[in-house]
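Nucleoside-diphosphate-sugar epimerase structure dump, as promised
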Amino acid sequence: MNESKQVLNYFITGGTGLLGSFMIEKLLSEGHKVKALVRPSTLEKLDKSKIPSNLEYVEGQLSDYDLLVDELRTSDNVIHAAGLVSYSDKLSTLLETNVQGTATIVNAALEAKVKRFCHISSIATLNESKDKITENSKWEYDENTSHYALSKYKAELEVWRGIAEGLSAFMVNPSVILGIGDTTRSSLKLIKHVQDQKPFYPIGTFNYVDVRDVIEMTYTLIQSDIVSERFILNAGKTSYKSFFESLATAMNKKAPKMGISPTVLEKLRILDGIRCRLLGGKRFITKPMINSLKKDNFYENQKAINFTNHKFRELSDTIDWIAATQV
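structure tokens r here:
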């Protein structure tokens, strides 16, 4: 049966984040009903008069198992998009949010017997290699593994465990997500870097994907009967220098001209550590952050293309879209 024509009840976590907000918009446009889990502090800031009738915000947290079970009993599909993306938070904080939160909603989904479960993971869980990285790249932990990557990997283990226990689930592994939204959060800080006309850029490359592609491909996958699979969602690879220059041109801003190497950043990291010890607060420059700049891998995207029959947008299209919203 093709469920794409049916009105389904979706439950989504992380609904106020970049990915979650676009996912809600997509689901509503397809005629589905959506319940989104939000923290009490977030709920207070929402304009209740602008919430459409087929969207309900559920006040609560991922740690509230009983609440999740109650809400999922009336939900068909779950999209778990909540997660903490950080290279500076303590491992315990990341494990609590990314691992325990995932374990709780997986258990709730099993008890509530939901039809489909999609876990939004990250390319950070895939092992690096000299060649292209695929969905079959095996996880290996070493001294350079970030706490974030470890937490996302352990979160994936909870999903695989749920699948073994009968959960109809799959996961997607996006690269750096580009889009429009709060430029003070997560990957959108790259846009703020250009908005603020910062003079420097890190020497290195990164893999990227348009948030609209993530949404469309994830929606196609959750409408299918695919289970026990993961999909890399990655449009391509570019240098920070090239990305900042292209975005600055599109936004009529000055592009950063000063390239900072990982070696220089390592020296700045030491000074940043001294600042934290004297003044407190989070570190701005961390070792995992620097290690990420040393990578030059490409994350293979053919599996996702084959399964969804969707072509990734060109980076120039994404940049033009972002720039048009910043005028």
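The chain has twelve helices and twelve strands.
lmk if u need the other ones
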